[in-house]
Amino acid sequence: MTAPLDLDLLKTFVAVAETGSFSNAAPRIGRSQSAVSMQMQRLEQAVGKRLLIRGSKAVTLNAVGAELLLHARRLLKMSDEAWASIAQPEEVGCVRLGVPDDYAAFLLPPVLERFAADYPLVTIELVCEPSASLSRAIEERRIDLAIVTRLPNQPVEILRREPFVWVTAPSHAVWQDDPLPIALFEAGCAARANVLDALAVDGRAYRCMYSSASLFGLTAVVQAGLAVAGLALCSVPPSLRVIGDNEGLPRLRELEIGILRNPASTGSAVDRLTDFLRRALRQGS
Predict the structure, then answer these.
(1) Helices 109-118 and 63-87 sit at what angle, rounded to 10 degrees?
(2) Is the N-terminal amide bond of 179 cis, ω within 30° of 0?
(3) How many helices (H) and strands (E) does the chain have?
(4) What are phi and psi of 124, to 5 degrees?
(5) Which of 70, 185, 190, 284 has the smallest number of CB atoms closer than 10 Å to its CB?
(6) Which contiguous run of DSSP H or E holds residue 140?
(7) Which run of H or E residues covers position 34?
(8) Digit-coded pLDDT (tens) for 37-86
(9) Would you say the C-alpha torsion 96, 101, 107, 113 has a positive or negative sign?
(10) Amino acid 27: pLDDT
(11) Backbone dihedral region of 182: left (phi > 0), alpha (psi from -120 to 50 degrees) or beta?
């Protein structure tokens, strides 16, 4: 008799397929990189076939893996729908959640997916703006919650400390240019200040090739080989390569990711999302 497929293993498999590596999949499912690797070995042993092509820079699916991915997504969706139908959650409401562009792209989607499975009747209105703008939105009572990168001396509940790294296009060595071409987030952003502070301390000459609040615009410039940039490790796409000490670039400070809440937002839906974000994003959870 054929053993049933383990949904936990399938969830990890989908995360690996969608992020392109064990290291990128790990924070998405709340496990270590080594645990992700072991789970993929168990899945391949269970099906009796290789599913992944393990490259030096990325993990891709072979033909069997691509076929399994289609079924895995359907099975996980059916599982979520089954739980939602029998749990009959009573929580309803709408929460206005602010999050910076880079966290919205990679860090938050799996968290919101799990929240929606537990509370399908809660609607989330997502506001994507830089941390400084989101902090003002909280003060002005325009949103309920915000995930932000902590600015200097800002009072905020810290959920995790995220490595902040240099990235470049794999096929370019633009970091060797002098002055160093860099792409930056817009003024007022903690990530921008982090990059400029590190370069100032190091005494490295630079020229700004691009400045924007858009993560996708910034990564497009880097992928084209026009500049290097600083990104939260959780936001580095598989198409870019992490660089640093070996390339002679200065060390970047960690980013402190925190949560802000509008004191006037007292609904139970806001309570549920606040608690969920705390558990999901706190390091070691």
Answers:
(1) 40
(2) yes
(3) 10, 12
(4) -115, 125
(5) 284
(6) none
(7) helix 33-47
(8) 999 999 999 999 999 999 888 899 999 999 999 999 999 988 887 876 67
(9) positive
(10) 83
(11) beta
| 44 touches 50 (CB < 8 A) | yes
Sign of the four-CA dihedral 237, 27, 111, 98: negative
Beta bridge partners of 125: 96
Angle at 261 between CA 257 and CA 267, to 5 degrees: 135
What's the full length of the chain, in residues? 285
Alpha-carbon distances, residue 218 vs 178, 207, 233, 242, 258 (angstroms): 20, 15, 15, 15, 23
Decide: 199 and 250 in contact? Cβ < 8 Å.
yes
Packing angle between helix 22-29 and helix 7-19, nearest 10 degrees? 130
Cα-based torsion angle of the residue sequence 53, 57, 58, 64 in order, rounded to the nearest 10 degrees = -10
pTM to 2 decimal places? 0.64
AA identity, residue 34:
S
Write the single-letter amino acid at 144.
Answer: D
Q: For residue 222, what is the enclosing H or E element? A: helix 215-223
Single out the residue of 49, 51, 50 nearest to residue 17, CA to CA.
51
Please check whether residue 228 is in contact with residue 167, taking contact to mean a CB–CB distance below 8 angstroms: yes
Helix (H, G, I), strand (E, B) or coil at 181: strand
Helix (H) / strand (E) element for 26: namely helix 22-29
Q: In 62-213, which residue ranges form alpha helices assigned H by DSSP?
A: 63-87, 101-106, 109-118, 131-139, 190-202
51 by Cβ neighbours in 10 Å (0-12 / 13-18 / 19+) ranks as buried
**Nearest to 14, CA basis, from 157, 110, 84, 97:** 110
Q: How far apart are CA 155 and CA 233, in angstroms?
A: 23
Placement of tokens 């072979």 in the chain: 62
